């Protein structure tokens, strides 16, 4: 079966391809394509047998990828569609040969693998293929790379490192496509040290330095790829580059180093940031931050502008390789070329302009030198531009309008099927404009049948919205700060005060007899103090009003205040209760305590404005006890006269009482400002006390 497979001729070099006519070259490509198809369609056993016995397949693949990886852009023989088809089939043959059970030894050479990588630099399938080949034949490949590495180190350390430029270009493609090859080449620091030495060599040209930076970039980024990234080796190499860069900067701060060129002209730092794992991210990240300081904008190489396609796929139809609707400027260029070469047709000149980007001088120079490409040398030079076969679309008559729809759209409103819609309204009911066109504003104002504005305002003036409102003076929500001014004023005089205190009256200004009657009624039945109409019209309430002389609102307010003050209720129980009564009065007067208390002192400090000078140290009957501002002192003795201690904050500062009063007044202003007066008065009013 192996004899049935046709042999494959080696691919000719560029020097031989130039002498082959285009027709014969197309025949050669057809022969290679058909032979490659035969190899690809053969059985696996037949293919492996052909690889072992026949070396034509290996020779063809090695020569083809060597020439294809080095051809220049001007070589039009390798830019045709047949050449691209042969390139795809050559890759398939290589893939099948490297995945077979017995791989030809010639196909395991590093130079062949590098040529394949240069032809398919971005192919993910090639990277997987190289990984599988390295797992199966790693020892053989490492032996070759070891010799290549030693050769590179020796040539890079020499006085003229530029001799290894071509081989460095070749090995760079293999390092880029194979992480295993990158790891083996970058193992140890000898190869990286040689790269640093060659970069700062005086004989190193610009092209060599770019190659060294490219190999360093591919080698270091290759350590982060693969099944097991080599982050520790990567960190060691970064430290080596950093030390070399620092040494170069010490000698000459403006001199570039391999690290500065790598950081400035390659995406080395962003690439490592993206490919670093989380576990190694912190350590590698700190190193990358330190590398930012080695960036030198002065050595940055200009980037090639990216070609942006402006075509949206909506161009006009191409006829004869150019627009059917020729632009007037294009026609002027064709006329200019035909003035110099009258024997050339307009169609052939249009093809020349397409080939050389509408550059008339370039077209003229190539015609004079007879250096046209092969496909133009064989073209018909008398070809003329043919007029377009179809008329332009923008000059064609417009299409006829669409036929109207047989059904008109319908609208539905709120007035459908009303009297107007049914035409059931009388003509006399129709009018245009105002219905009463003769009516004016003066006529409306003279109309006496309607009520006047003055009558409406008079009615509103006589209306009192509070007629049906009850008296809410003693509502539960409003009782807190209410004071009965009549009772308060009746007890302000000295006679009234003496009359209340002499009989052991209540200190809040209420007559003891009245308070006793109120308390006994409250203790007997608290419902007697309710606010309902039935309670107010009842006989018990009438008797209570007669006994106290108070109104219903005052009686109800007293009960509300008593319910809010538990201490007052307890005091009234002790005074008027059955257990503590003796002849209708308590046998013993309530004796207030005289010991000083901080809380009481705060309360008393607001009341002792005038001090004890006015009241003196008299007894209980002579105005002792607690009084308002300037009303008297503390009254600790029994009838000792009118003089005594006291003071006011507004009196002269040389008196002792004035200083004491000022100290008490300012005691708690630092922490609670001057809110003691307000809080104390609110407490007194809540207990039902009265001012006076």
Automatic annotation (TrEMBL):
Q: Which CDD domains match?
A: CUE_ASCC2
**Where would I find the CUE domain in this sequence?**
329-372
Instruction: Extract the InterPro entries matched here.
Output: ASCC2, ASCC2_CUE, CUE, UBA-like_sf
Q: Where is the composition biased (Low complexity)?
A: 385-394
Region spans: Disordered: 295-324, 380-412, 425-446, 465-509, 583-692
Spans of biased composition, class Gly residues?
612-647
Query: Per the record, where are the segments of Basic and acidic residues compositional bias?
Result: 586-598, 653-669
A Pfam family: CUE
Specify residue ranges for compositional bias: Acidic residues.
465-475, 599-610
How is this protein named in the record? CUE domain-containing protein
